[in-house]
Amino acid sequence: MQVIKSYTLYFNTREANTGTSNNCTWRFTTPIVLSNTNNRFLISTPMVELPYSFSQVNTTNNNLPYTYTDSTGLRNFSSTSMFIPEGNYNINQLQSQLITSLVADIQLHWAGSTITASNFSFTYSPQTGFTTMSMTGLTFTVTIVLKFSISYVLGIMNGFPQTDQTFGTAVTLTSANKVMCNPITSIYIRSETLKFQNNYEAIVQNYQNSDIVAKIPVTTLPNSIIYYRNDQKSMISNKFLSDLNLYVSDNLSTSYTLDLQGVNYGIAVQIDEVQLKPTNAYQDQIGSAIVAPAKQLIQQRDNLLRDLIAQKDQLEKEIADRKNTNQMEAKKSEELSIPQ
């Protein structure tokens, strides 16, 4: 695979022609075009400077539906209006905010509610990594079902699987898993412009074609810059590029959007035009792997080769014998022809 031309593009989302840092497009003053339609483009991202300005709890995952029942039988309801404010939390902050949000939402559905934050007992054990939830100090029995089956990201953050969980004055709930308050572990830079030939993914949906340009691990703390280098090249089938679209997503949401909160980022894009077959450019094709010959075929080849060598030796011997016979007959004739 021979590189014919290379293009190095340096972008900052601040200078994009349309969109925001979450999803933007640059238009090229001079389109990038294949010099031979049998060639291909390879694309890579040698350098990315991505801000950790996004929130682990965001508008795609901050709603936690629940049901409330108590022994009075008068204040039973289901709620889909409880939200955790966007932001980044440690587990103690998250538990405290969850209590605050529950108290406020219960008051919306039950005017004059006597339930306060002191009635909730949410704890975290740094030794085990597990959390517990219960309620105390009430004269009636309360049962709350948190629907982590719908809000699985908040379940991950609190240490629960993707199933509904029940706690209350008579039920103490202990998480089945260790807490993970930073479940967004990777950022994906994607493109609606590029047509990838051999990219596939199964991140937030079943196995499918992918438009991922780069996968960037989140290895820093919030409000810092993630520096990422990458030499991996992906083949695209575009014959020409007049513009380039890039947008960002995470490893959790099927919405394929991530809010960078208005902060821009820089990226270097490398585009190489390659000739797949330098000695036969007009018959470019991606070949399949060579299959090793079967052992039986190798044995047959060796047997035939031995037979051919034996036949060759036999013929050479017959030729030599015939040559000797002819020489002897010629000498004898010559002797008889000499006068006595």
What's the structural blueprint in terms of helices and strands?
Layout: E1 2-12, E2 18-20, E3 23-33, E4 40-51, E5 66-70, E6 77-79, H1 91-109, E7 120-124, E8 131-135, E9 142-146, H2 152-158, E10 165-168, E11 173-174, E12 186-190, E13 200-201, E14 208-209, E15 212-217, E16 225-229, E17 234-236, E18 240-250, E19 266-275, H3 295-336
Antiparallel strand pairs: 1-19, 2-3, 3-18, 4-16, 4-17, 4-19, 5-6, 5-9, 7-8, 8-11, 9-10, 12-15, 12-18, 13-14
Characterise this structure:
- There is one protein chain.
- The protein is an alpha+beta fold.
- The chain folds into 3 domains: about 1-55 and about 185-285, Jelly Rolls (Sandwich); about 65-175, no CATH class; about 295-340.
- Helix content is about 20%, strand content about 30%.
- The protein contains 3 helices and 19 strands.
- It has helices at about 90-110, 150-160, 295-335, and strands at about 1-10, 20, 25-35, 40-50, 65-70, 75-80, 120-125, 130-135, 140-145, 165-170, 175, 185-190, 200, 210, 210-215, 225-230, 235, 240-250, 265-275.
- The strands form 5 sheets. Strands 1, 4, 16, 17 and 19 form a 5-stranded antiparallel sheet that branches.
- It is elongated.
- The mean pLDDT is about 90.
Keywords:
340 residues, alpha+beta, Jelly Rolls
Q: How do you describe this structure in short?
A:
The chain has 340 residues and is α+β, with helices and mostly antiparallel strands.
Helicity level: 10-25%
Shape: elongated
Residue share in β-strands = 25-35%
Please tell me the CATH architecture of the largest domain by its name: Sandwich
The rounded distance between the terminal residues' Cα atoms is 83 Å
> How many helical elements?
3
Biggest β-sheet strands, sense, barrel: 5 strands, antiparallel
CATH class of the largest domain: Mainly Beta
State the secondary-structure class: alpha+beta
Order of helices and strands: EEEEEEHEEEHEEEEEEEEEEH
- CATH T-level topology of the largest domain: Jelly Rolls
Ranges where pLDDT stays below 50 over 5 or more residues in a row are none
